[in-house]
Write a structure and sequence with these properties.
Helix content: 25-40%
Shape: globular
Distance between the termini: 105 Å
Number of helices: 7
Largest sheet: 10 strands, mixed
Radius of gyration: 24 Å
Structural class: alpha/beta
Order of helices and strands: HHHEEEEEEEEEEEEEEHEHHEH
């Protein structure tokens, strides 16, 4: 049998084609559910404390991508499913924020708040209830959750004031905030001051004389308030956790950034809204938590180009009163 020579250019082309096919197969294998380790797949489901398949697949794909790019060395990554209920009733919080550490085969599901939104009375209502989130968006000052791709960045600890811990015993409230950087529709996360922190705040603020305190202002005054834990409530668009969980997460990402994927994105919201009207192009209803979908009817995404002008006009029509100094505390 005679062997015919093959031109070098064809050989090179065929070799490149083989490499491309191999790379495409690798990418598909990472995206496929079978690529998820068995121990992690055991946590997949739609019950409280479990992670839904699409949320895990996207969160894991994002993490693997950033690791491959050299942007992440952290052994753990985060995900959040904002379609799930935040409050299950009777003081029980829904666990919808996930911490996956594949190297140690560790998986945790914890509680997290969702964006409260706002009701601009007489103009537009894009507020959310305590249990389920109906409205999502990326507009400035909207206090809405925006799904998509995030990276944890620097952390900053701020003094908020003092609060009473016991009989005539006070403590300084220091809260750490982890800044998020987003991509795509979440690209303005830094401008919106979107990040993660403990679900705690000081209420009923007043000023108290404490000239020897390192936190005192030029008049020798320090802010004082009542410490409120709102882990079961809503946030201003940030991701908020219980103080104990926040302490752990902050330690995990200090000087060691990782990825956070928040579901749903606007495309998911649009698909669910269409399915609710009986129009599902794929023939299958896209994922949404069943109990919350029944409660909200259909979700809505508010793009910034639509909502920001409405918020700006409302502020123009309803100017905020001048800021007033905090009153002096009434001594107990």
């Amino acid at each position: 049998m005679r062997l015919r020579s093959v031109p070098l250019g064809i050989v090179v082309t065929l070799s490149l084609l083989v490499v491309v096919i191999a790379l495409m197969a690798t990418v598909r294998s990472f995206a496929a559910p079978s690529a998820i380790p068995a121990w992690l797949q055991a946590h997949v489901g739609d019950s409280d404390g479990q992670i839904s398949q699409v949320v895990l697949e996207r969160a894991r794909a994002l993490y693997l991508k950033k690791v491959a790019q050299g942007a992440v060395r952290n052994p753990c990554y985060f995900a959040m499913d904002a379609t799930r209920p935040g409050d299950l009733g009777n003081g029980v919080l829904g666990r919808r924020y996930y911490i996956a550490c594949e190297a140690s085969q560790s998986f945790r599901a914890i509680a997290s708040g969702h964006g409260a939104g706002k009701n601009l009375k007489g103009t537009v209502d894009f507020s959310n209830g305590r249990r389920c989130s109906k409205n999502f968006g990326n507009a400035m000052d909207s206090e809405l959750t925006a799904g998509g791709v995030y990276m944890t960045r620097e952390s900053k600890t701020s003094f908020k004031g003092f609060y009473r811990t016991g009989a005539k015993q006070d403590a300084a409230f220091l809260r750490t905030f982890i800044q998020f950087d987003g991509e795509g529709e979440a690209a303005n996360a830094r401008q919106r001051v979107i990040g993660g922190h403990a679900a705690q705040v000081l209420r009923a603020m007043c000023m108290r004389k404490s000239p020897n305190s390192s936190y005192a202002d030029h008049d020798g005054l320090v802010p004082f308030g009542k410490l409120v834990d709102y882990a079961g409530g809503r946030s201003n668009g940030c991701t908020s956790w219980s103080p104990t969980d926040a302490q752990q997460i902050i330690a995990m990402v200090k000087d060691n950034p990782t990825t956070l994927y928040i579901y749903p994105e606007s495309r998911d919201i649009a698909a669910v809204a269409q399915a609710a009207k009986g129009h599902s192009p794929s023939g299958e209803a896209p994922y949404w938590n069943a109990s919350c979908l029944k409660e909200i009817g259909a979700p809505k995404f508010w793009p910034r180009k639509t909502l920001e002008p409405m918020i700006a006009q409302y502020r123009k029509d309803h100017p905020a009163p001048p800021a007033q100094p905090l009153p002096m505390c009434k001594e107990p």
